[in-house]
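Researcher: Please generate the 3D structure of the following complex. Treat every line as part of one assembly.
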Amino acid sequence: MLYFFGEDDMRPEDQLIGRRREKLAKLREMGVEPYPYRFQATHTSREVKDEFDALSSARDPVSLAGRIMSIREHGKTCFSHIQDGEGRIQIYIRRDVVGNEAFSAFKLLDIGDIIGVRGTVFRTRTGEITVEVRSFQVLCKSLRPLPVVKEKVEGDKRIIYDPFTDKEQRYRQRYVDLIVNPDVREVFRRRTEIIRVLREFLDERGFLEVETPVLQPVYGGASARPFVTHHNALDMDLYLRISNELYLKRLIVGGFEKVYEFSKDFRNEGMDRLHNPEFTLLEAYQAYADYHDIMDLTEDMLSHAAEEVLGTTKLVYQGTEVDLTPPWRRIRMLEALEEEVGVDPRELSDEALRKLCLSHGLDVDGGMGRGKMVDKLFDEVVKPQLVQPTFVVDYPVETSPLAKRHRDDPELVERFELFVSGMEIANAFSELNDPEDQMRRFQEQMRLRERGDEEAQVLDRDFIRALEYGMPPTGGLGIGVDRLVMLFTDMPSIRDVILFPHMRPE
RNA sequence: GGGCCCGUAGCUCAGUCGGUAGAGCAGCGGCCUUUUAAGCCGUUGGUCGCAGGUUCGAUUCCUGCCGGGCUCACCA
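Model: Done. Output below.
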């Protein structure tokens, strides 16, 4: 029990909390309930500002609720800002208006407390729209001190003083980040908006949104190591999905011709500014389409999203202008590579290819297949150059076991990846629907696995069985939603667009 | 996992070439009836991330550990 200790024994933070507990007790003594059940607001802060002219001339009372973000006591009056879901608004409270008792109660409030106020709207001498409080109600007493971020507006510039910047605390205590950093709230609003627009786009084109298993007995659809979990009743291991691709294609077999899912996927790998162990992938499949159709779809969808969410297809990412206005550049993977290194990797022996990789500082081990080496080389020399939206098409068959062979070249597959600002944003292909070729590809993956490639894909017999019933020619698409949000919000790290990014335990 | 950097008051940061620390904001006590980074006067608050080592003495130097950031590697 805290009460049994003197202040001398308390941690300084507990002293601050103790002060607030004392105020809480005083409020209760005054008959104020600090945690009531509801409050009926008539307006939001934004509505009060938008409707200021009508509200102020009619002297109509408004009521609104929010969190106290600043307090400026001024003798027998007090100015304060409260923050609701849409912004901040100043309130002005006078002892001669609310009465002695209410004014004393108000003085027991702290930054961080949540109140409801009722009053009339006016403009202060300095021009700020303000609610003159007639009455107020405590809606929640807060016990823990909030970082106090001050802000000065000079013309159109906002100068922030003592911003709450500690990344660890911001990610661990995102609620605090959201309270004190309005820009962070804006990022996540925009994230939701982006997802809404993508969903709308697909719905309008007749795609069916579906849900597929997160817990899978056989994981597949991507090259990655999975998280393993255990089902007690069945006494069996299950995997958290690394992709939902194989399930969505089963649905195409089943006769749905256009399906999509916003899929939270899990990959048991390292994390950096582009990778979080759990992330959101939008996958979409369209029957009777090939990767050219999917390229057009992707271009339409993402430029449309930019137009809807940003109001333009030109954006700035980390200081560089990116123009998403279609059409986007399309280049062949091996040609792009040849342009950078001066030789078509297919003309090189395994050994020469390995040497080329080494000369670019790449760490290639003996067991690594040609496909993987080409992939790494591409990532190293080409990918960083792809700032403007670019479709890279036609990949080597080895690294794409679920894609259909290229109609003109059996060593390639009909696959594209979309790069923007050096980031891979989308991955798509003409889906492999030949069950026998699919079986051979799985077997090749198994061989890679036996040679130690832990990311090689595993054989999914039921998926083969499904293909044996027949899947129409199909185009499939995966879009990294988190990265798309990074691009649209100009955020440098994936952790800035995931509300609760993965952290080590405190 | 490698490299570099960081961890000092609730928040943002100084500082100590080794002698156990300081500011602003927040808090607390005053004054102030249109302020706005409100102001003015006064004031509380710290096992300087943790554990060892060196030393008469460590927050400062060294080592290890924990947590974080950036980066490379791994990886979509």
